[in-house]
Amino acid sequence: MRLPIEATPEDSRSQDWAPHHVSADLFCGCGGLSLGFTMTRRFSVAFGCDISPAATATFALNHARDDVLPTVYTGDIREMSVDAIAEAISERGVRQGELGCLIGGPPCEGFSQNRSLNSGGKPGRGVSARVDKFIDDPRNRLFKWFVDIAAASQPKVVLIENVPDLVRHRGGETMAEILDALTEAGYIATARVLNAANFGVPQLRRRMFLLAQRISDFQATGIRLKFPEPTHHPYPLGHQELDMDSDWLPGDAGYWTTVREAIGDLPDAVARGDENGRALVYPPANLTSLRMFLRSRDGVPPLNHIARPLGGSGLEKLRRRELETPEEADRNGRRDHYYYSYKRLRWAEPARTITKFVYHIGSGMFAHPEADRALTMREAARLQTFPDWFEFPTARIRETSGLIGGAVPPLLAMRIAQQVAAYLDALTLAKLDAGTRSNLRPQVSDAVVRRLEREEWSSARQRHEPLRLPLAADLLPDEVAEVG
Q1: Would 117 be classed as within a structural domain?
Q2: Residue numbers annotated as active site
Q3: Which domain does 382 fall in, by range?
Q4: pTM (two decimals)
Q5: Residue 313 belongs to a domain with what CATH number?
Q6: Domain count of the chain?
């Protein structure tokens, strides 16, 4: 079985009722969210903004191949008025209220568990000099500004990404405030923590996503916007010998994709200084769906694939940690916070979370599974599911690492975008008159054949009877969440 990683079928775009949608990306970073949306072939990006020049340069460079070039703004977005943003989007042919999706990950510092009592603002509930509402904390002004933009521009869908701790901060009060603010802005919103590994990303990365739709659209159609269903599940058995099995590529069977699937088909990394003089050619490899998703198809070799050998101190720490048992880590005080520093990735498992500090092996499980070196930035980008043609133009390793680690994995973004596109299509279809809609119904088979398509037969049964085969997740106890 090969799970679909390619974008939605082209024939869906040929229908008049399935239009091309437009999104705008606030706090775009290098563009992981936007890339996922454009790779569905159902969205174009009209606008992107970020305060980091390296981020917007990367964003603009990699969207240059799109049919519609986005307007890119570099700087403090609060210096742009709502009208100016609306005008920038309208220059790409999008009228007020017609934006398909407003996306972004507004930074917010005021939900930290160590939040200061003297954070400024108006006192409330009898506590002097304390901000009692997340939405009123000046450290979260960008989050509030994002909601204000949504209220003013009224996009059909709002997508917000943030760290998972946001949903449990202050016993859920913070999330309740955000949902209430979006309700006041005219939206029904739902939040969920998603694990990227459950959607084909070779990485155990958990993030909070909030999806919101206009209340008016729901009242008119009764259609609810939903999160995508997982496409991949953890493997029920873990064996160290799988690390040595180059044929262990479980993603196409519906299990979590692995580090080997993500980076095992890359050519050898080049030494710094040789990147322009040595042609990189893909070696022969078993081309799984993930690898075909990541590989360039226009002859462009893997970019940013420069080897970074370890120094003597780093290599010594790496080898010492390889021999350390969990019990020894407990005694050395590293079990909780530093257990994964100076450690190698495992070929047969997904990577741990790729962070902004992926360039430094002391900051996480960021050493190559076999070679005595840190990950190349291309390997880190692949673990985030950036395709090989996606270029990070900055030569500063920390800057590149920050762009990669701070991004939403494009493959996860694409799964969400496909769900958003299906919802927007349903809205468009629901608003057509009955006569037009009846002419657009897809051709279907007869009821008997459709029923047969939902049934299965087993040689273990004496009579024909539908049989539900268990998924990998059904084989695991509820508390098992990770491999190894």
Answers
A1: yes
A2: 108
A3: 245-405
A4: 0.84
A5: 3.90.120
A6: 2
